[in-house]
From TrEMBL:
Cellular-component GO terms for this entry: ATP-binding cassette (ABC) transporter complex
Predominant location category: membrane
UniProt protein name: Amino acid ABC transporter permease
Domain of life: Bacteria
Gene that encodes it: glnM
Domain (ABC transmembrane type-1): residue spans on this chain: 24-215
PROSITE patterns for the chain: ABC_TM1 (PS50928)
Annotated membrane topology: Multi-pass membrane protein
Length: 246
């Protein structure tokens, strides 16, 4: 039983389709829970990076630089085996959720920081002049303007997180990649390499492609709206200049 065009191989994959669905379910569960953790960490890091406290900015910078400049596989293995040797048994899925959440949170934090910093400083000054405190400035003035900017790159991070769940394979996870490997090396299903990995790849594609397309269109729409606003602002500025000159 081998080869891309082997009907027996494809039949075996179809017969054991529930195994792939189980792997997909575990992957989605891991991705969704890790995403929630990443959002929390990212929001905290973004606010810390743009706060007035130098200490908070330094802490956020150290976290981002350390996490982004060390491999996810290393972080996952360290967390998994460190917890195991410490006598803490969270299981592969929960450990993966923590590792992926911590890793993706660093990138989410940079997205939030960049989005907040994209808001003109005049908005910060105007909010402060109105007597708003930091949380009020962020909640009422800054974040509503920065959310449309941060959404497209956040969607891209969601896609990356979903694909990064494949790293659970290295610690024997029950994700889609791990289930596929177990399938192609199984005693009764071994040998259907090409069909199994093609199906696995198609499942990843079906989930990731719509999200990537959404992010691209969202970003293009945002740039188009900015392009419409900027000429209007320039025209208004020219009119003001002409009136002042007259």
């Amino acid at each position: 039983m081998s080869g891309l065009f082997s009907l027996e191989s494809w039949s075996t994959v179809w017969t054991h389709r529930e195994s792939f669905l189980l792997g997909l379910g575990n992957t989605l569960q891991t991705a969704v829970c890790a995403l929630a953790l990443a959002f929390i960490i990212g929001a905290a890091l973004g606010l810390m990076s743009t706060s007035g406290s130098k200490l908070l900015r330094i802490i956020a910078r150290i976290y981002v630089e350390f996490v982004q400049n060390t491999p996810l596989l290393l972080q996952l293995c360290f967390l998994y085996y460190a917890l195991a040797f410490a006598g803490v048994s969270l299981g592969v899925i929960r450990t993966g959720i923590i590792a992926l959440g911590v890793y993706t949170g660093a990138y989410m934090g940079e997205v939030v920081r960049a989005a907040i910093e994209s808001v003109p400083k005049g908005q910060f000054e105007a909010a402060q002049a109105q007597g708003f405190n930091y949380l009020q400035r962020m909640g009422y003035i800054i974040l509503p303007q920065s959310i449309p900017v941060m959404l497209p790159p956040m969607v891209n991070q969601v896609v990356n997180l979903f694909k990064n769940t494949s790293c659970l394979y290295i610690v024997g996870g029950a994700d889609l990649i791990s289930v596929t490997y177990s399938f192609v090396t199984g005693a009764s299903t071994g040998g259907a390499y090409a069909p199994a990995y093609i199906v696995c790849g198609l499942i990843f594609f079906v989930v990731c492609f719509p999200l990537s397309t959404l992010a691209a269109r969202w970003e293009a729409s945002l740039k188009e709206r900015k392009g419409r606003v900027n000429p209007g602002l320039k025209t208004a500025a020219k009119k003001v200049e002409l009136k002042e000159a007259a």
